[in-house]
Structures are given as C-alpha cells and as structure tokens.
C-alpha cells in the first residue's frame, strides 16, 4: 500500500490543495509556550491555548450504532491528536520531530521520515511557540458486519508560529490520512498531504512571466 503519494510542500502566499453527524471534540493536552527576547516578561512563561481537535464522521457509519461511532471517533481522534502534538506543538525551538510518527505503521513511518518537511513543523523549528488555530478532521469508514475495518480522515490543520523576531507565521496542513485498526489502537498506513509552511516566496520567482 502506498503511503506518501501526492506529497507537496508549498509556500505562502500560494494556497494549499484541497466526505453529518455530530462529532467529538478532543482537547489537546499541550500549550504553546515561549517569550520574546527583550520583553519585560522574559522570565515568565506566556501561554496560549491551542484549538481543540474537532472530529466528525461524514460517511461510512450508516450501519454503526451511535455508541460505536462515537467510540471510533474518539479512537481515531486520539491518534490524530497525538500526531498533531508531536508534529506541530510542544516546546519550541526544537529539533526532534521523529516522534511524530509513533502511530504510523513501520512502512508509513519510513515514508513519513523521508517527507518530514511536509508532515511536521520542522521548517519552523526556530519558532519560539506554535499554537493550533483550527483542527478539523472529517472521517470516513469502511464497515462490515457493524464493524469498521478501515478509515480515512480529511484534515484541515492550521497553526500560528511565533518567530524569534515576534512575527507570526501561518502553517496549514491539508489532505487525507488513511488508517486501519491495529492490535491496541488505530494506525496510519497512508497519507496524501500538502503543507503551506508560510515561508516567504522568492521575489524573482513571483515576478517571472507565467508564459
């Protein structure tokens, strides 16, 4: 099964590329922290709470009862929230992003490590803080005999990175994450994602004649 098809990294101001039931909301157990050099409160930790992860099932759960659907949303939501925390949140500046792929299958984790600039905030590693501003996941499941045997999450994850000069830089991850149930929890086996990392676009490139 292919896992890294269609990965692209994009720079601002270009836009990113782009399945109802009531879903679940999962609060992330992390705060984006940091302080700016020269700020009179350098010795104090400034905290900004990240947006909660919103998960809803949009297709494939017609044969599931409400309790089973809610449990599935919670289980997949836990996998997605762990990924978000490890890949984009936590303490900054930071260097280590490999832990982001703990819920990936071994093959998907290898592919993800090779595309780490798309799947994590590694290009904003020098930020003083990053917080989530929008975390939406729409789930689709493949079911049989009232049980789900595969699923996918159409995600829109948006973040604000505060850089060391005080400027704010947006990061937006869009696309699809594919999952299967494992022995203890759901696992990511594939992904088709695009990252707009908010990096400045070369002026010469922008001024080129498209013809």
Explain how this protein is built.
The chain has 211 residues and is of the alpha+beta class. It contains 4 helices and 9 strands. The chain has helices at residues 66-88, 106-114, 116-119, 203-207; strands at residues 8-10, 24-26, 31-34, 46-49, 53-59, 129-144, 147-162, 168-181, 186-196. It has a 7-stranded mixed sheet. β6 and β7 (147-162) form a beta hairpin. The protein is globular, with a radius of gyration of 18 Å.
In short:
A hairpin with a 4-residue loop joins strand 8 and strand 9 (186-196).
- Helical content stands at 10-25%
- The H-and-E topology, N to C, reads as EEEEEHHHEEEEH
Radius of gyration over C-alpha positions, nearest whole angstrom: 18 Å
Class computed from helices, strands and strand pairing: alpha+beta
List the helices and strands and how they pair.
Elements: E1 8-10, E2 24-26, E3 31-34, E4 46-49, E5 53-59, H1 66-88, H2 106-114, H3 116-119, E6 129-144, E7 147-162, E8 168-181, E9 186-196, H4 203-207
Parallel strand pairs: 1-9, 5-6
Antiparallel strand pairs: 2-5, 3-4, 6-7, 7-8, 8-9
Key descriptive features of the protein:
211 residues; alpha+beta; seven-stranded mixed beta sheet; two-stranded antiparallel sheet; 4 helices; 19% helix; disordered N terminus
């Amino acid at each position: 099964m292919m896992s890294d098809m269609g990965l692209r990294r994009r720079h601002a101001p270009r836009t990113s590329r782009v399945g109802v039931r009531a879903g679940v909301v999962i609060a992330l157990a992390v705060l984006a922290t940091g302080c700016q050099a020269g700020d009179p409160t350098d010795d104090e930790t400034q905290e900004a709470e990240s947006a909660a992860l919103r998960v809803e099932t949009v297709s494939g759960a017609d044969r599931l009862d409400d309790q089973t659907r809610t449990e599935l949303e919670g289980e997949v939501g836990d996998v997605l929230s762990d990924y978000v925390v490890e890949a984009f949140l936590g303490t900054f500046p930071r260097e280590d992003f490999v832990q982001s792929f703990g819920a990936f299958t071994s093959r998907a984790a290898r592919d993800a490590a090779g595309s780490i600039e798309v799947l994590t905030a590694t290009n904003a590693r020098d930020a003083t803080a990053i917080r989530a501003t929008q975390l939406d996941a729409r789930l689709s499941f493949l079911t049989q005999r009232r049980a789900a045997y595969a699923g996918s999450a159409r995600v829109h994850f948006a973040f604000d990175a505060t850089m060391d000069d005080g400027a704010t830089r947006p990061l937006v991850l869009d696309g699809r994450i594919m999952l299967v149930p494992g022995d203890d929890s759901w696992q990511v086996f594939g992904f088709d994602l695009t990252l707009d990392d908010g990096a400045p676009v070369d002026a010469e490139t922008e001024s080129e004649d498209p013809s």
